[in-house]
Known about the structure:
Layout: H1 3-13, E1 21-23, E2 31-32, E3 39-48, H2 59-77, E4 80-90, H3 95-112, E5 115-123, E6 127-136, E7 152-156, H4 161-169, H5 176-180, H6 184-195, H7 201-207, E8 213-216, H8 221-232, E9 235-239, H9 247-252, H10 255-264, E10 271-275, H11 280-289, E11 294-301, E12 305-309
Parallel strand pairs: 4-5, 9-12
Antiparallel strand pairs: 1-2, 3-6, 4-6, 7-10, 7-11, 8-10, 9-11
Helix pairs in contact: 1-3, 2-3, 2-7, 4-6
The chain binds adenosine-5'-diphosphate and magnesium ion.
Adenosine-5'-diphosphate binds at residues 7, 10, 25-28, 86, 88, 116, 118-121.
Amino acid sequence: xxxxxxxxxxxxxxxxxxxxxxxxxxxxxxxxxxxxxxxxxxxxxxxxxxxxxxxxxxxxxxxxxxxxxxxxxxxxxxxxxxxxxxxxxxxxxxxxxxxxxxxxxxxxxxxxxxxxxxxxxxxxxxxxxxxxxxxxxxxxxxxxxxxxxxxxxxxxxxxxxxxxxxxxxxxxxxxxxxxxxxxxxxxxxxxxxxxxxxxxxxxxxxxxxxxxxxxxxxxxxxxxxxxxxxxxxxxxxxxxxxxxxxxxxxxxxxxxxxxxxxxxxxxxxxxxxxxxxxxxxxxxxxxxxxxxxxxxxxxxxxxxxxxxxxxxxxxxxxxxxxxxxxx
Length: 327
Ligand code: ADP
Ligand code: MG
């Protein structure tokens, strides 16, 4: 397949009409028209085969995930996604792969009416870079630097499922025997949390006027909350017993293993955020409405860094607090 046939295939699969796209794929650049009065929120994320996803990941799942992790960054800002760019580096021009990839990408793009407006296609080791654009009202963009002492700390959904899904895929994992004997639908659900994460866009939008700081959990809860703490100049205390767990995680892991997955596992793409006391009740009500719910897991305190506490308030030391590419 030639480069332009590949681009054509992607273009057809991802066709979404938007009035703010004056000119999409096909020229040297796209022409886009942001609405007056809204801020443009922009982010990019790269996925490298063998680093960010197992080499065996299906093309469909990779297409979905490459957009999902980017939309998750917009969710964490409280932005509404609108446009995307896709830079694909492929070892060869494999039509079946590109069809599958575009299918998974288009499935999620259609859910949120995200228009693919351009990109680049090159040959090399399998790597996917996506750029996303979103809009948000200027006064209400969610940032990492707004947490205040006395705020409550929340997280959406459940934690640790994606990291457990990764262990399900790893044949050498010490726990693999227990996981191997888990019901197939439980394993599949955990793996889908890894390969098909749900960007919490509705939650992010609902939090715009309620949260004081927000981040998406991509590297691990404690590591990511550490960014809020550092940027806001505060400390954060997390109550280990309050961390939300799925029924799959509860069924398959004992408490210490579960805690390691919840607090240190990456790839959850839930939102972790701080909330002033006056907005706590609103958060609980509004996030129950958007489906994923939110659990109160801790508080913002004076000081610095993130501390994980047991039932007695004693700090717990975890071997791994999160993912660092260069550690
Ligand atoms: P140029 O050489 O001028 O950069 P390209 O030949 O790379 O143009 O791309 C032609 C058109 O196809 C451009 O509009 C570009 O944005 C789009 N495009 C290329 N690759 C992709 C891709 N993987 N996904 C979406 N659009 C793409
Ligand atoms: Mg180009």
